[in-house]
Design brief:
Layout lengths: L2 E5 L6 H9 L6 E5 L4 H8 L7 E5 L4 H5 L4 E4 L15 H18 L4 E4 L4 H14 L8 E3 L2 H14 L11 E3 L6 E3 L14 H12 L1 H9 L7 H18 L7 E7 L4 H11 L3 E9 L2 E5 L7 H26 L3
Parallel strand pairs: 1-2, 1-4, 2-3, 4-5, 5-6
Antiparallel strand pairs: 7-8, 9-10, 10-11
Helix pairs in contact: 1-9, 4-5, 5-11, 6-7
The protein binds nicotinamide-adenine-dinucleotide and (2S)-2-hydroxybutanedioic acid (LMR).
(2S)-2-hydroxybutanedioic acid binds next to helix 8.
């Protein structure tokens, strides 16, 4: 059995994400959990003639949804409105994510946990601290889904230079908000970054860092990215399943992880930066994180971006972790 649970399945991300995952033969059981309308979404999706069975679970049915899960994907919580930062969502989403992580600890402590709910820089530490509190934390199994930053980077780079295929992967490190999103454009082939003027590089970097705001503004109060996020979330989930269920090797995605997931390869970076969490290219293995790949040689432009990202990340991480460690 390969059971995947979507928490927040009836939402703007949850519905298209569930639809995309319904198409995968790697999943046998798709469990949709939400505090509203999950049975309705599940009934609809369950008529699709792909391999998985679909169950819907309402607000009093979280335990049944989570029992036996292989992977739990969490897009539950409120999205931004224009003028808000992701950190403004902390007040509501921190408690939602804490309660779902508690459900994971009690019902499926071995599950992979994929956190989409914002602010990701803080919600991932919340999940990790809850799992630690219950004695079931495995840093190889908890991921902040920052794939949308990679998807956007690939797309925006190909718009700047149409010779670059939009499927070209861009390494994006740091975190998932504003200045903490650091695209390593210097890693692209054919000296792409060097071919840009300083103004072009600034504009492209800014667009990647604030791509979320572009959507929030365009939706004008109706939420934030949902369809592109569902695409990115499905891509990340399915890559993880390819590695952990189908045994494929050499699969890499950028993702925000606790650096103890690969203590050996991250010790020097942790020591240098004082960070416990960081988004970086990760090679998947059968247990989730196989290797956190070393940060490549960055350009001086990217080093300046990293220098701005690190202090903000530290604040975000401490805020998430202390939300759990300071509570009784
Ligand atoms: P939405 O409001 O459309 O959907 C959220 C869903 O969560 C709703 O159906 C709601 O009923 C449900 N929910 C609320 N509390 C719950 C709980 N305790 N248990 C289960 N379900 C619960 O919002 P959305 O647009 O789908 O966005 C969801 C979250 O994803 C937001 O926090 C948003 O900021 C974040 N997001 C992250 C990324 C990323 O790149 N990581 C991208 C886009 C959005
Ligand atoms: C995004 O990057 O689109 C998401 O984090 C949603 C947001 O609030 O911008």
């Amino acid at each position: 059995m390969v059971k995947v649970v979507i928490c927040g399945a009836a939402g703007g991300i949850g519905q298209p994400l569930s639809l995309l995952l319904k198409q995968s033969d790697l999943i046998t059981d798709l469990a949709l959990y939400d505090v509203v309308n999950a049975p309705g979404v599940a009934a609809d999706l369950s008529h699709i003639n792909s391999k998985s069975t679909v169950t819907g679970h309402g607000k009093d049915d979280m335990d049944a949804a989570l029992k036996g899960a292989h992977t739990v994907v969490i897009p539950a919580g409120v999205p931004r409105k224009p003028g808000m930062t992701r950190d403004d969502l902390f007040k509501i989403n921190a408690g939602i994510v804490r309660d779902l992580a508690t459900g994971v600890a009690k019902n499926c402590p071995e599950a992979f946990v994929l956190v989409i709910s914002n602010p990701v820089n803080s919600t991932v530490p919340i999940v990790c601290e809850v799992l630690k509190k219950h004695g079931v934390f495995n840093p190889k199994k908890v991921f902040g889904v920052s794939t949308l930053d990679v998807v956007r980077s690939s797309r925006f780079v190909s718009e700047v230079n149409p010779k670059i295929d939009p499927s070209t992967r861009v390494t994006v490190v740091g975190g998932h908000s504003g200045v903490t999103i650091v695209p390593l454009l210097s890693q692209l082939p054919n000296s792409f970054a060097e071919s840009l003027s300083k103004d072009q590089l600034d504009a492209l970097t800014h667009r990647i860092q604030y791509g979320g705001d572009e959507v929030v503004k365009a939706k004008d109060g109706a939420g934030s990215a949902t369809l592109s996020m569902a695409y990115a979330g499905a891509r990340f989930t399915l890559t993880l399943l390819e590695a952990t269920v189908a045994g494929k090797t050499g699969l890499v995605e950028s993702t925000y992880v606790n650096l103890d997931a690969d203590a050996e390869n991250t010790a020097a970076f942790k020591e240098k930066t004082g960070l416990d969490y960081f988004a970086q290219d990760v090679e998947f293995g059968p247990e989730g994180v196989g290797k956190v790949l070393p940060l490549p040689q960055v350009s001086s432009y990217e080093q300046t971006l990293l220098d701005a990202a690190i202090p903000e990340l530290k604040v975000n991480i401490a805020k998430g972790a202390s939300f759990i460690t300071d509570s009784a």
